Structures are given as structure tokens and as C-alpha cells.
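Hello,

Following up on my earlier ticket. Below are the two sequence lines again, exactly as submitted.
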Amino acid sequence: MSGLPRVSLVRLSMLAAAAMVVASWAFVLGWDRQQGTAFFSTETARRILGFIGDLAGQGLAREPAYSELSEWSRTARLAYDTLTMSVLAIMISAIGALATFMLGARNVATHGGPVARGGFLAVRASWAFVRAVPELVWALLAVFVFSPGILPGAAALAIHNYGVLGKLASEVVEGMDMRPIDALRTAGAGRTKALAYGVLPQVLPRFMTYLLYRWEVVIRTTIVVGFVAAGGLGMEFRLAMSNFHYSTVSLLLMWYLILVLGVDIASSQLRRIAR
Amino acid sequence: MVNPSPRPKPRLLESRQLLTLILFAALAWSLLSVEWRNGVLHGGGLRAFGEIGAALFSPDLSLDALAKLLGSVGRTLAYAFAGLSLALVIGFPLGLTASGVLRAPGPMRRLTQGSARLTLAAVRSVHELVWAWLFVAAVGLSPIAAVLALALPYGGILGRVYAELFQDVPEAPLVALRSAGASKLQVFWHGRMPFVLPEFLGYTFYRLECGIRSATVLSFVGLGGLGFEIQIALADLAYGRAWTFILGLVGLILIVEAWSSAIRRRLSP
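Thanks for your patience. The regenerated structure is below:
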């Protein structure tokens, strides 16, 4: 590979990706043709329209759930739980990432001895592993271990995001301006002081920005994790779907959008402070 | 990678303390909302944890499991590549419209730009699994439902990022093209596009990596694939079999991650 021009990997990858796209569509379309009704048909259009009608609560004997105040107040509790779950998850993952990010930074590890290098490999591997497994899979495992409530879902989200935040924080350390730290060390500051006055002031603002960005992702995923872990809007969404209570599904989707929008706004306001 | 930010003004220091305070308050609030009375672990939680942990070192390596693993990896990849290609088709025109670079400033641009931004934000705010579930409920189990479910939120994310890329192009070469008589579209293709291409490709490949992770989750609604197999194995309490698929997923993700980061390293100047 080394003899070839640098751009060739990119060219090759684009060709490979294009071939994969063609093969994937051929596979997906071929598979679809084996199903009872083809996806691209008037039947699909009719079903989608019917489903939108169901969501709107057409043909119900009573009022659709989203137009009843009692239903809103019943589900408010679930929305609150979902919000709590997302905050708990992001906070636990932040604590985990803050405890390990120095170990996982390449430039720090190469300065240290064999212990630091071993720690670097272990921490990096743990991040890569927990990051590669999606939140929902962690949730499937967490329900076997944690007592029901918001904990299993929060734990699942926290495990995955610990890997994400740890990696992001260590990348900030790797791209850090070393001059203030060198200046501190020359002035006689020990490791702890160099960390407190040289590293953290550079890393923390950036870390908080990432934390808030990840919170936006977490709130979108919280409902998904709730499908399998008891608690929050996700569980109720699953129940409503299984019982064909589609107007309740609409109500839960409305809460979901309110939470997503609210967290996006809160996060961008807080990011402005962090900057 | 990251340049140090310029020295903060003294006023900002205070607001950072405020942020720290808010974060600590949020942590305290979320910890207080957990019902600790029920205990952290449930009845057989510790035993289950031990069994799950032990099973990690004895995954099910039977021929049947490995054949299923190979098949579901194939399906997962098919969802991801088909979904991402459709996301590109959705995200590129919407992102271009949302960036507003093809129109002169005015009420028409505000209208098209605003509606494109709103569309992108709307499809983006709903998680792909929620989309998948809604599609399956509406039209039944079809692999195209999974592809669409992936393509909508990913199209929304790609569109937003593309719009930002198109806007962040230095003006000088564009002015040169314009004064040479190039049309708006020509300025875009020969001025903006070459400039953003490395980042454009790099980000798209990064999203492909995320798309493969998401595609596993999509199959939970019953569409076959890695997530589906993990769910079935765990329902049978066959932890070893579940780890086979989880480890297969981790391997797949790590390979794609290495691929995509190699591409991004070459693309970055």
C-alpha cells in the first residue's frame, strides 16, 4: 500500500462503498419481492394513510388520547422519568470518562512507564468495546441485573456513552497546547498541579461541550432503551403499540418531541455558557 | 486537532462556575429520583451478572450459530449501505437548500431555507428505531421499511452537516469564479464542492460507521439481523449465544471504525 499515492485508499473505498450500495439494494429489493405485498404499491400507500388515520385517532369510540388532559397528566410522569434517566445516564458516563481520560491519551501514555502504557491499552480497549455495542443491547443485558425502574436504562446509556465521552476527552488531551504545561513543570509544579492548572482548564470546557452534545443524543435514545428496560416513555410506547392504542402512541410521540426539542434548546443555551 | 481557545474574559469565568453548579445540581437531582429503596440490583441480579460475565468467555461457537452470525452480518450491512445511500439522496439536496448558497438573499431564500431546515430537524429528532417501528406497524415487515427508517434520521443529520460545510467556504475563490461569469450552480460545483469534498466524504464515511451500529438496533422490531438474534438468544437466556452475536457486532464495528478513520486521516490535510 505504501508505494501507492495517498489518495488511492479513498478512491478504492468509494468504489467499494458504491459496490456495496448496489449489492445492498439488490438484496433488499429482492427480499422485498418475496414478501406477500411489494413495498412499492398502492396497497402500501393505502396502509400508510390508514395508519396516519389511526395515529390521529380516527374511528375511535372515545376521544383520542392526545386531546384528553387526564392522559397528558398521566404520561407527564413518564416524560419526567425519561428526562431523569437521560440526565442520570450522561452524568454517570461523564464521571467514568473523567476518571479514565488521562489514561487513554496517547501523548500522556508515551511519557509514562510500562504501567502507563498498559493502562492506556486497557482503557482504550474498554472504550472501543463498550462503544461498539449499541445502547439497546446493553439495556437487554442490564434488565437481567438492575432492579426495575430508571436504573437499567440509565446504566445501559451510561455504559455506551462512557466509551464515547472517554474517547472524545482523550482526543482533546492529545490535541492540547503543551506550552502552558511545560511552563508549569519548569516552574516546579508537580504532576497534580500540572493537571489542575495546565490540563483541566484546557480540557474541561471542551469536555462540557461534548457532554451537552451527547445529552442531545441520549434523550433521543432514552425512549428506545425504555422499550426493553422498564420505565419512562419507551415502555408505555411499546405497550400502546402492542395494544393498538395508536392515539396514545401519538401522545407519547408528542411528549418525545417536546423532550427532544427542550433538551436541544437547553443544551445550546448551556453550551453558550461553556464557551 | 484542537486549538486552545483564546483567553476567556473574566465575566465568562463566572458563567462557567454557574455551569458547574448546574451540572452538579442535575447530578444530585437525577440521583435523588432513583428509587434506592428497591436496591440497585434486583433479586437474582448478582447471579445473572456473574453468569453473563462468565458466558463472555464461552461464546457459542457451534456451526449453526456461526452461520446465523454470517447471515445477520450480511443483512445488517445491507440495511446500512442501502440506508446510507438513501440518506445521501435525502440529505444532499435538503442540505444544499438549507445552506441557502444557491439563492440570492431575499424572502424566497428565507422561505426555502427555513422549510428545508425544519424538515431536516423534524426527521432528525425521531430515533431510527421509532421510525422503524412506525413503518412496520403501518406497512408490515418489509426490509424497505428498515432502510427508510435508517435513511430518514441519517438524511436529517447529513443534511444539517452538509449545510454547515457549504456555508463555511472562504469567499475569495467564489468571488473570482463569479467575476469570471460563472453561474450560481457553476460556482457551487467548481468553487464550493471541491473545497468541502474532503470533509464531506470524511463525515459521510463516519456516518456509515454509525449507520452499521444503528442497523443492528433496527432489526429489533423483527426485521432479522444481528439485533434480532441477540434479542432471541437473551430471551432464551442463552448468554453464550448472545455474546457470539455481540462479539461479532463488535468485530464488525471495529473493522469499519478502522476503515473509516483511515479514510479520514488520508482526507485531512
